[in-house]
Write a structure and sequence with these properties.
InterPro entries: Acyl_CoA_acyltransferase, Bact_Acetyltransf, GNAT_dom. Keywords: Acyltransferase, Transferase. This is GNAT family N-acetyltransferase. 25% of the residues lie in helices and 27% in strands. The protein has a single domain, classed as Gcn5-related N-acetyltransferase (GNAT) (Aminopeptidase). The chain contains five helices and seven strands; from the N terminus they run E-H-H-H-E-E-E-H-E-H-E-E.
């Protein structure tokens, strides 16, 4: 599986709900923390990223390898001030999440997934998109390259909330899938 090439990035569908849950775990467990599926889904602050996928207004993309197996995903949904995500900015600003299966990491898939999602967000009329990135997560460099800027602290002051104005994002021809 790990040596296969990513052949396409497609829209996330209702049938991808379980894969997005797996990707949520991959995003949560990037460092030392080890959440189980049960722990993540039992925590309302975490389950909100995947429960009821898709809701109206949700955006998502899934990368598939040559065998048609999902290799990574990027998705975004809106939250309310009463039930915010970790990277909440405003109700009209979707918050994104992204993760890649371990066997497919380090091959440039992150930028491809993010650019595909950001393009779909633009097409849907989204003006800004946010995210939360834990201190020390190397993905922060990718987010900065894509034009995200830190606008606050969240998640118990152990993570930055970052925001991208889509009209201002730099275009990366290598990653714009």
């Amino acid at each position: 599986m790990g040596s296969e090439t990513i052949t396409r990035i497609r829209e996330a569908t209702p049938g991808d709900a379980e894969f997005l849950t797996r990707m949520l775990l991959a995003a949560l467990n990037w460092g030392e923390e080890e959440y189980t599926r049960e722990q993540a889904l039992a925590d309302p602050a975490l389950a909100v990223y995947v429960e009821g996928w898709p809701r109206p207004g949700d955006l998502g993309v899934v990368a598939e390898d040559a065998a048609g197996e999902p290799a990574g995903a990027a998705w975004a949904r809106r939250f309310t001030a009463e039930a915010p995500g970790d990277g909440f900015v405003a109700p009209d600003v979707p918050e994104l999440a992204v993760a890649i299966e371990p066997a497919h990491r380090g091959r440039g898939l992150g930028p491809r997934l993010l650019n595909a999602l950001l393009r779909r967000a633009e097409e849907a009329g989204v003006e800004r998109i946010s995210l939360s990135v834990d201190d020390g997560n190397p993905a922060a460099r990718l987010y900065e390259r894509l034009g995200f800027v830190t606008v606050g602290r969240g998640a118990g002051d152990e993570a930055d909330t970052m925001l991208l104005r889509l009209a201002d994002r730099p275009r990366d021809p290598r990653g714009d899938a």
